[in-house]
């Protein structure tokens, strides 16, 4: 039976439609969704047909490379000229190191401008002709290798690197200057600390001020088994160097019954069982904040170093290699707790024990 013998309403939609035009179509013959559509027709960019537009793009690329060079020079100048302890206020971050902020800003601009210049160069001036190439075995044939070298030569020619001398020279300048940033950084990691790491803000006569209330502490303010954090008198949280000072001067106070203190010097440096130790862990400098009342142990939350505050804050567990430094404290004529000296040794990681 031919299609002419089948009623039109029983034919497939595609076949019925084509029957009306005198032809029978097979479903899927002309609408294969997996057919290779081929490459679209190439559209020329404005820079390909207008040399003035190409010159504008060239100037933009050169400007970006020039900005990169200036930013690198600014990086070096900032590294040499800005004092390491200088701070500036940056909203909404707050007070930060002026040197770190400037170095990060200038280096970021230098690297960004090199990248932006290269991208703009590729998008506007380099060849954008679409090239399709069939897959081939991993090991290239001699003819393929020769073709690759030929394509490379064509790409070098089409990049117009030899023709666009302004781009070439400024690019080479930017790429040559950026590594100097690393050279200056490797030349020194900042000024030598001298004795700054060996001393803190604590000294004889400074009152111990409660970190929460900002009020001087009396012995009666510290109950047996409690943990209190303190800072040196006269140090404001609004000060530019507050974080820098507290990084070394952070203090924790614990009251232990005098008969439970095992270390004789610790007992002599305490007041009525109130002992004062650095809050900075001697492993990598994390702040200690966990206190176990029954055992008189304090725990560093970073790597679980544990110190016994009833026995000279010696290490009883964990990677810390040194006991916590103790602060010698007493009571002044007004009845407030005060420091009688600085810490007995440098706070934080035991750098001074490394030859």
**Remind me, CATH topology of the largest domain?**
Rieske Iron-sulfur Protein
Average residue pLDDT: 84
CATH class of the largest domain: Mainly Beta
Number of helices: 8
Q: Low-confidence parts, pLDDT < 50 over ≥5 residues?
A: 1-6, 11-27
Strand content: 5-15%
CATH superfamily of the largest domain: Rieske [2Fe-2S] iron-sulphur domain
Helical residues, percent: 25-40%
Taking the sheet with the most strands, its summary is: 4 strands, antiparallel
Strand tally is 12
Question: Which strand order does the major sheet show?
Answer: 3-4-5-6
Throw out a few tags for this protein.
4-stranded antiparallel sheet; 8 helices; disordered N terminus; iron-sulfur; alpha+beta; 355 residues; Rieske Iron-sulfur Protein; 2 domains; elongated
Structural write-up:
Helix 3 packs parallel to helix 6 (165-186) and helix 4 packs antiparallel against helix 6. A hairpin with a 5-residue loop joins strand 9 (306-308) and strand 10 (314-317). A four-stranded antiparallel beta sheet has the order 3-4-5-6. Strands 7-8-9-10 form a four-stranded antiparallel beta sheet, with no helix packed on it. The N and C termini lie far apart (103 Å). It is built from eight helices and twelve strands. The protein is of the alpha+beta class and 355 residues long. It has two domains: 46-186, no CATH class; 196-353, Rieske Iron-sulfur Protein (3-layer Sandwich), CATH 2.102.10.10. It has helices spanning 13-20, 46-49, 51-81, 98-124, 142-158, 165-186, 242-249, 264-269, and strands at residues 87-90, 94-97, 208-210, 227-232, 251-255, 274-278, 290-292, 297-299, 306-308, 314-317, 327-331, 337-343.
